[in-house]
Each structure stands twice: as structure tokens, then as C-alpha cells.
Amino acid sequence: MFKKDLRKKYKALRQQLSEAQIEDQSLAIANRLLQLDIWENTYFHLFLTIEEQKEVDTEFVLQILAGKDKEIVVAKSNFDTLAMTHFLLTDNTKFQKNQYNIFEPVDGIEVPPSKLDVVFVPLMAYDSNGNRVGYGKGFYDKFLSQCKEEVIKVGFSFFEPEENITDVSPNDIRLDYCVTPETIHKFPRTSS
């Protein structure tokens, strides 16, 4: 399927989920995440949930990261340049919602993408090869291209993968894993 059709399909599927289903399945994803061999790393980049989009609730993952005393990094997006600035989450971090209802840090200690070990990547859909479909702005592909080559890219989804995304671009950066409530999908790395 084409990305635009997948966006439409998964937006509709997510809209059918109740708040209770989102909470239960998000907790199941966070628990399954504990099985991944990523916890020796230090710097974890976490996206903050857009509730209106019925995304996976990352609050449970945030609690795991805090409990494991990890360095948690969150992003602020610039919709003019389609670039992201990354800030260390601290007790002093102040947040505000942007025009798209995304909670973002106001400011703080900036962390370069090259410092990150693990990036949790938001997505609408993904396929059996680890290709993902986001909201179409390219923020994450641009950001992930600035990370070190060995950064671990983990997606979260309530759903199983599509067989194939038809219109994958050379700039699209594949996931290493996608965690669902039922399983962990591991994707082979391609040599760059």
C-alpha cells in the first residue's frame, strides 16, 4: 500500500480504540519493551504522546526509563525548517503544547543527536521490512540521519506490520524493532 493510504487506514483503526484499550495496550507494549536488549545504553530519546491522534501512550515507557535511571531526551519541533532540537528531561523541564497539540520542552540542556543510543520512533504504520510511515513531514527521517550509525531505532504500534510499503524513499530510515502488545518485530539492518 502507498503511504497516504496507510495513513488513512491506520488513523481510522486508531480512532476505533477506546481510552481503556489504548491504556491497556500501551502498558503491554511497555512491558514487552523490557525484553529488548537495550538497557545497558544511557541516552534514550522518547516521543511524547499526541493523545488526539490516539498514539501509544509513552508515559509507561517514561516511568521505566526513569526507574532505570536513564538519561531521557525529548524533542522540540520547528515546523518551518522541519528540524528537531533535543533536550535532556530534568526536574526543571517546562513543557507547553505547540500548535499541533504536541507537548514540547520550552528549553533546557540541549543534547546532540550523535549522543543518543536508543530512539523510540512514533509511527502510523510499518511493514515487515521495518519501513515506517509517519505523519509525512519527514521530521524523524531527518533527525535519525543525524544520529550515529549504531543508534537503535524502536517503533511502537498497536497493530501488526503491513506486508510492504509501496513508496519507500531512499531517505526513509528503517526501524530496528517494532514493539506491539503481542510481540517484538526485529528487522535486519541494511549496510549503508
Layout of secondary structure:
Elements: H1 3-15, H2 19-33, E1 43-45, H3 59-67, E2 71-78, E3 83-88, E4 95-97, E5 103-105, E6 118-121, E7 125-126, E8 132-133, H4 139-144, E9 152-156, E10 177-179, E11 184-186
Parallel strand pairs: 1-2, 1-6, 6-9, 9-10
Antiparallel strand pairs: 2-3, 4-5, 7-8, 10-11
What does this structure look like?
InterPro entries: FTHF_cligase, FTHF_cligase-like_sf, NagB/RpiA_transferase-like. By secondary structure, the chain is α/β, with parallel strands linked by helices. It has one domain (3-115, 131-138, 147-186): NagB/RpiA/CoA transferase-like (Rossmann fold), CATH 3.40.50. 22% of the residues lie in helices and 22% in strands. The protein is built from 4 helices and 11 strands; from the N terminus they run ααβαβββββββαβββ. It has helices at residues 3-15, 19-33, 59-67, 139-144, and strands at residues 43-45, 71-78, 83-88, 95-97, 103-105, 118-121, 125-126, 132-133, 152-156, 177-179, 184-186. The two termini are 25 Å apart. The relative contact order is 0.19. The model has no long low-confidence stretch (mean pLDDT 94).
